[in-house]
Design goal:
Keywords (chain A): DNA-binding, Glycerol metabolism, Transcription, Transcription regulation
CATH class of the largest domain in chain B: Alpha Beta
Largest interface: A-B, 25 and 24 residues
Strand content of chain B: 15-25%
Number of domains of chain B: 2
Oligomer: heterodimer
Radius of gyration of chain A: 22 Å
Structural class of chain A: alpha+beta
GO biological process, one term (chain A): negative regulation of DNA-templated transcription
Domain HTH iclR-type (chain A): 5-67
Shape of chain B: globular
CATH superfamily of the largest domain in chain A: GAF domain
CATH architecture of the largest domain in chain A: 2-Layer Sandwich
Largest sheet of chain A: 6 strands, antiparallel
Protein name (chain A): Glycerol operon regulatory protein
CATH topology of the largest domain in chain B: Nucleotidyltransferase, domain 5
Radius of gyration of chain B: 22 Å
InterPro entries (chain A): GAF-like_dom_sf, HTH_MetabolicPath_Reg, Tscrpt_reg_IclR_C, Tscrpt_reg_IclR_N, WH-like_DNA-bd_sf, WH_DNA-bd_sf
Number of strands of chain B: 23
Strand order of the largest sheet of chain B: 17-18-16-15-21-22-23
Number of helices of chain B: 16
CATH class of the largest domain in chain A: Alpha Beta
Structural class of chain B: alpha+beta
Shape of chain A: elongated
Order of helices and strands of chain A: HHHEEHHEEEHHHEEEHH
Amino acid sequence: MPGTVQSIERAATLLHAIVESGGQMGVTELAAAVGLPKTTTHGLLRTLLAVGFVEQDPRTGRYALGAGLLGLGSHYLDANELRSRASNWADSLAARSGFAVRLGTPAGLQVVVVHHVFRPDDSPQELEVGSVLPAHATAVGKVLLASRPALARALADARLEALTPRTVVEPAALLAELQTARARGWAEQRGEYRLGVGGIAAPVHGPGGLVVGALGVSGPAEELFAEGARPALRTMVVEAAAAVSRELLA
Amino acid sequence: MTERYVLAVDQGTTSTRSIVFDRAGRLVAVRQREHRQHFPRPGWVEHDPEEIWANTQLTAAQALRDVAGAPGQVVALGIANQRETTVVWDRATGRPLVRALVWQDTRTGPLVEELAARPEAALVRERTGLELAGYFAGPRLRWVLDAVPGARARAERGELLFGTMESWLVWNLTGGTDGGVHVTDVTNASRTLLMDVRRCRWDPDLLDFFGVPAAMLPEIRPSVGVLGTASALPVPLPIGGALGDQQAALFGQTCFAPGEAKCTYGTGSFLLQNTGTDLVRSRHGLISTVAYQLAGEPVHYALEGSIAVTGALVQWLRDSLGLIGSAAEVETLARTVSDNGGCYIVPAFSGLLAPHWEGRARGLVAGLTSYVTKGHLARAVLEATGWQTRDVVRAMDADSGLPMEALRVDGGMTTNNLLMQFLADVLGSPVVRPMVGETVSLGAAYAAGLAVGVWSDTGALRRNWHRSAQWVPDPGRVAALDAAYPEWERAVQLSIAWGERR
């Protein structure tokens, strides 16, 4: 088993101590309770405060669990639940657009395909549910990366694999594209995963507003990006993703 | 060319839905309204026919309004309905005599036992292709005639009308007391125990046996063909067809060739296989039923296997055991383990239907050891649906001898990937899901559209059918599940034996 990360262990111990204190301890008491130097404890608390995992009473200086931590559990959305809620909308997107549809959820710098609807032409196709795609080279992946700024920053240090000559491997270029995607509410890729195959995707929001998945179409790039086809397709994808988001609220 | 749309009304057990489809078979508008379930006594289940008629008018008007601005015109109405639910109403006032007796209602149990004891009872199976069971409409009608004072005399004078739900709706849609058309479609009539399944006519001997006056029965019509004009809608439309819901799903899945089969996975599951224009009599616990009939063409038949509890077992895991928060989470829980851990669940909550027909069987969990976790239980819950499907498919193979190249599936459980793969493995044949999951409504729309020429023939409907997903059997898993099947069969035998000892 690989070694544990000490600071995370300490942060967890500290969170337990905060729970036990019932929100009645300041930094000095907490440091004593977990057996750490006050400066270390202070540093940990400041970090936890910054990410919203703890809150500090501005009057007394005492610490309590933060809303960010409490929200984590309720943001969790079961992937199978997501598929079951999205199914009708994904079917209808495939039927209307004539392209294959995929619904992806984030897994670090990758995307897990949680739902896949065949291109409606009865050609031989294999179900890809459960397969993993590189986020930087797919439209669904770009949507998910764009929704997680911290993750997107980690891209700067990652080695981005060139899957085709068109794959964007320059971190700065990718980050710029993600920023655009976030602003306009959809992303695309043109032969960046497999040559000749493109994709358009839009975000699916969970009940808390957090992006929980990305819904997109993919197919031959020349059809997908044909003159005149694009705006209509884009609208269809964005509307289908919005419909799934609404379905998750119900 | 202007688009032509078809409106389908799916009058189901819990709600009435009005759905508009375009010529490509794509869904354009959906409106839905639930109706109240009445449980006046244990085992009694009733619906208010007037509430259902009001919901039909309301949702149909809403759906028509939804597409009023669309570039096209709605040209026909088709109906799919909950089967075997029985309505008796007054011809002069249009008021139901009593609330509708729903297909889940078990009050006719003692009546059916009494009838079954009579020497001429063998007639029923011979003429109808069905088991003499309280599940069908005929005994319910008889119950109403016995229970309501004066009803039989009034029925004989032609003052009372009988119908299943499509019959009630068509009568009201076409004017009700003001010239309403009193008809039923042949698939619904085949579920009454009153129809000769070969000739597709009300059978005088059966009417005598059940004590039902012929004067109150609707005229039997093909499933595809204009029944009348729905003048009660804001836009009068020809009613182009009607089908029982499971037959409608078979039609919507375009299973038009002998051997083609579909299974709808909901609370319970219904597997129907087209057997062509030949009636196949089951010797393995299935029922013979009418699949559909196009006007002027011979009747097509089907073998049907009904499974009482499939999705309901997942609901039990959620609501009674609280092991999952939503039905979809059963897959998440099941994926925490790689097999069933030797555990089998037979969900015989109120007996077993096809192919066993053991009303007294009771559910059991077999193979418990301390090794079994909730993950294994979740697997066993999903596998129970797969094993039960295998029981029915095996009976179908033996009865029809028709090869089933693939099973077409629809219904809520088809979003469960683990279950769909298990089905492919346990059946040893591919499982395919169509692009339009609303196969019941689609089948009703197809029937109506064919009648008025929106589609030229069934070939045009087939071209609309597209796969949205396919699960292929894994040879290694197929062999492993073949080896495990006797274990399941043993568990089923134990659940039957448990019921017998009570």
